[in-house]
Amino acid sequence: MKKLGTISLLALLMLCAVGCSSAKATRTEDLSTWAKLKAALTARFTTGQKALQQANDAKAAAKSYKMRVEMRLHPGDPFITVEEMACPDRQRLTASLGDRPMYEAFRIADTSFVKDNNEWVKSPVPPEVYPCGNNPGAAAPWALLNEGRDMSSALVQLAGKAHANVSVGKLIVANGAPCQEWEISFGHPGSKDQNNSSHMGAMRYTICVDTETHLPNQVVMGTGGIIVKYYDWNQPVNITAPI
Asked: How many Å apart are CA 40 and CA 38, to the nearest integer?
């Protein structure tokens, strides 16, 4: 019965691939049904680790992207950073606390430029800090918190370790496209229930992956203490030194 159900679902998907394509642009309900069926089939025949690795591979092939990180781990206004990446080694960062600008910085090859009292200060930067390819990068020496580090690639690396559990979540719409959520929990090492996401010591993240491009779309820590949004993948971006 289970095999018959799978065959029926495959047949439905094949029929829809032929019959739904012409109505795809005009009937949003058909597109929604197709997206749900495709996502359900994909989730059925893949593991969370494979889905995350596919997202990491897609990110590694990207030439450029933008990343907005909002942190609400403290009282008051959120700390927000917006990062523009032109891979492999050009980056522009702006940081603000609510509506108040905190700093602006550039990384060009092995040199950083940070604005201090309306003057640009140059400093050396190791190449491994850039979050291009499948590298999560690292926080710059002048970062206030963890700016410059890509959480999606970091989660992929952590999900391959022990004490990690990855399960399929909701199918949502993000940036106008279907996006499959994957829930990642890390049990506290040494605990008796380290693979249980409800354990008091567990860390929980949700990463949403675009079902068409397989690129990461959003990462949420817990209930929203940190929200990372990715956008403008492979769009032209020109980043040059400010001086």
From this structure: 5
- The secondary structure of 127-181 as a DSSP string is GGG---TT------TT-SSSTT--HHHHHHHHHTSTTEEEEEEEEEEETTEEEEE
Question: In degrees, to the nearest 5, what angle opens at C-alpha 62 toward C-alphas 110 and 66?
Answer: 75
CB 143 within 8 A of CB 77: no
At 36 the three-state DSSP class reads helix
228 within 8 A of 67, measured Cβ to Cβ: yes
Between strands 111-116 and 100-108, the pairing is antiparallel
Q: By CB neighbour count within 10 A (0-12 exposed, 13-18 middle, 19+ buried), where does 241 fall?
A: middle
Distance CA 8, CA 6 (A): 5
Q: List C-alpha distances in Å: 113 to 49, 62, 105.
A: 37, 24, 5
Confidence at residue 213, expressed as pLDDT on a 0 to 100 scale: 94
What is the model's pLDDT at position 44?
A: 60
Helix axis angle, 2-19 to 28-44, nearest 10°: 140
Confidence category of residue 33, pLDDT binned at 50, 70, 90: low
Q: pLDDT band for 132, please (50, 70, 90 cuts).
A: very high
Percent of the chain whose pLDDT exceeds 70: 74
Predicted pLDDT at 194: 44
pTM for the model stands at: 0.77
CA distance linking residue 228 with residue 146, whole number of Å: 12
